[in-house]
Amino acid sequence: MGQRVQYERFGGPEVLEVVEVPPLTAPAGGVVVDVRAAGVNPIDGKIRSALRPSGPITGPRGLGSDAAGVVSAVGDGVTDWAVGDEVVVRGAHGAYASQLTASTAQLVRKPATVTWEQAAAIGVPVSTAYQALRSLGVGKGMTLLIHGGSGSVGRAAIQFATRDGATVVATASAGNHDALRALGAIPVEYGPGLVDRLRTAAPQGYDRILDAIGTDEALEASFELVDDRSRIGTIVMGARAAEWGIQAWAGGSPVPLTPQEQAWREEAYGVALDLIARGEFVVEIARTFPLGKAADAQRLVESGHPGGKVILLP
Hints:
Blueprint: E1 2-7, E2 17-21, E3 30-40, H1 42-48, E4 61-62, E5 66-74, E6 86-89, E7 99-103, E8 107-109, H2 116-121, H3 123-136, E9 143-147, H4 152-163, E10 167-172, H5 177-183, E11 186-189, H6 194-201, E12 208-211, H7 216-225, E13 232-234, H8 241-244, E14 247-248, H9 259-277, E15 285-290, H10 294-302, E16 309-313
Parallel strand pairs: 9-10, 9-12, 10-11, 12-13, 13-14, 15-16
Antiparallel strand pairs: 1-2, 1-4, 3-5, 3-7, 3-16, 5-6, 6-8
Helix pairs in contact: 3-4, 3-9
């Protein structure tokens, strides 16, 4: 028997329960993956609490989309994957579990030197950061402002942008400034006087802005610093993006990702895994929890200050 985290009503982390489930069978054209690590993302809690619409609950519902593990069974028609292959699963369904099924299109090969925790950490935050920078057209010689640089998306965006030759300024609380400097960013503290501090940090001005925090302070500062609002993007305030004239991806945006944006998100996995394997990309793991402590893991993420990625270990 295996284990699965599920819920049958919307609410706080307390609605999550761990249940015993029978072993899974590989579907035709797909595989079974024994999960070694699963990433906990803010979106998981928003779906669980109905802050993000997901349709009515008609039965037990799993959660979690980021997972890494070992292929334990292959279905009919699968030729490129074998039992024992170490994989990352893109867009997993029910990653908070000891096993899951996935199509071969969802699988990315995990380099041997990448840990299970690192592999499970890249999904949502790294693919979101990579796609957002591509959508904004961030490139060599530009100056990028990231609001919320200490979060998982912000840290990934700093590393991708600096590798592309951009100068990065990132807002964060003072306690995170050393970590952001180590990633290559110029840190600036939140709070009164933010716009003046941001102008001092980059007297040449800003070419692009990525909002990964969604505060009024961040958005008001962005509008003061960049005249062309199409050069501002948000991953958390999408519901009002059209009203403000800014770009948005997820975060309640009614506009789905374009095929190109989706392709960038898929491309991000291979790019990040290769960089991690070479020691050229840092994934900060804040804390790991056993599967049975999924509610505590979500509480830590919802606190807004996990200090890195939170991982479940089945």
